[in-house]
């Protein structure tokens, strides 16, 4: 249970489904509720696939390119810190995708994989965290628990996107802005932790 909660806490702020709500609502504003819900479900399923693949195979990819896990943690920490800074600025939640991508997505019928699943929900920061969750000391049971944590995260993300219209109406722009700043601070802290732990492992352990 602790591993599942740790996985959720490590990934939730970086995935930040609340930050995906404005873009999701913009891209699905002319869709029926059934189609909008379908897009949210498919995006969350894609997110599970992306994060699970990088969790299970990421270490082998790093080994193939000769990249140490500590190098990834530093690079990932820098990316996560940038995402945190973006969330701390007004309108920062929309910076995960460029305006050109949003404009292109408005002409697509299926936005579940891109830009919703990638890069909104499972962007570089979430992928870096997923790879960082893997260690050689993990048992098969621990891996299953981490995958369950990823699936639970997807379920929570789906509920948030599913009721994004109601949540936006309830929280208002001020509430969403405050929530974005809170998420940004947490994401920034995660990025700092990634970098500090990697430097400690490289030079002090």
TrEMBL record:
Q: What is the lineage of its organism?
A: Bacteria, Pseudomonadati, Bacteroidota, Cytophagia, Cytophagales
Q: Which UniProt keywords apply?
A: Cell membrane, Membrane, Transmembrane, Transmembrane helix
Protein name according to UniProt: UPF0056 membrane protein
Spell out the family assignment given in the record's similarity comment: Belongs to the UPF0056 (MarC) family.
Q: Which PANTHER family match?
A: UPF0056 MEMBRANE PROTEIN YHCE
Q: Tell whether Membrane is among the UniProt keywords.
A: yes
What is its subcellular localisation? Cell membrane
Concerning InterPro entries, the annotation shows:
Multi_antbiot-R_MarC
Q: How does it sit in the membrane?
A: Multi-pass membrane protein
Superkingdom in the source lineage = Bacteria
Q: Which residues cross the membrane?
A: 46-65, 116-134, 140-161, 182-203
* Cross-referenced NCBIfam families: NAAT family transporter, PRK10995.1
